[in-house]
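FW: tagging you since you asked about this chain on Friday. Here's the raw sequence from the shared folder, copied in full. Didn't touch anything.
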Amino acid sequence: AAGAVDTAALAAGAVTGAKLADGAVDGAKLAPGAVTTAAILTAAVDGTKLANGAVGTLKLSDGSITNAKLADNAVDSTKIADGQVGTLDIAGSAIDSLRIAPFGVDTADIANDAVTTGKLATGAVDSARIANGSIQAEDLQNDAVRSAAIADGQVGASELASGAVTGAKVENGSLGLADFAAPDGSGGVLVGSVPVSLTTWAPGCTPITVPNVPGVQVGDRVILTPDATLDPGLIVQPLLQPAAGALSFRICNVSGANPLTTTGTPSVGYVVVR
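HL: got it, structure written out here
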């Protein structure tokens, strides 16, 4: 009859799994601690079966939490030990400017040639950032170099284009004999004086040729200035130079004396122009 077999009628171990109907054993029928590890099927315990906070660190075996066990966004910075994120753990382009601390990028972090013109702020490159001797002509814009940028005495003859210096560029009263005298071919100019040793002068002009004046060329012109000891009856007449390496001119007796006799050895200063 229904209910005829009570607990006392059952021998120990008499109720096997086969005697239990599906779903016959609910939580109330289980003694505390009755469900052992062997009684639980693989993967039978999902998140709904775990009480909040029920699984502590000691319940997890090393390496048991795989990527598949982690929910999206489950691992925040507090879960990562310091220094554990390596280069290979970072996705390409994952680190943008917001992820870099101020002054976090130093010289060693920048690849050669990585800093292009577009990366430089306006005015970022001052003179301290430019290596000495690295600015070439093609780096300068037209009209970029003003007079204030040129050190005194730095523009030499080789820097001047032909015809660049006009009269307007020359300060009044600044030119001396050496500035317009012809070069002597040895780094000097053809400016000097020669002695006049003759003391007897026939009427008319006497040609004078002074040898060994290096640098004089055929066709050169001369400016002559006698000193004050030259007799007033004599005048000096320049010539277009007929020979190289010598100075030629005339001294003319205009006194009317025949001959004119002088004393001393006056000198004649010369400037050769070409």
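FW: The CA atoms of residues 156 and 162 lie 13 Å apart.
HL: agreed, and Strands lie at 191-195, 200-201, 204-210, 221-226, 234-238, 247-253, 260-261, 267-273.
FW: great, closing this out.
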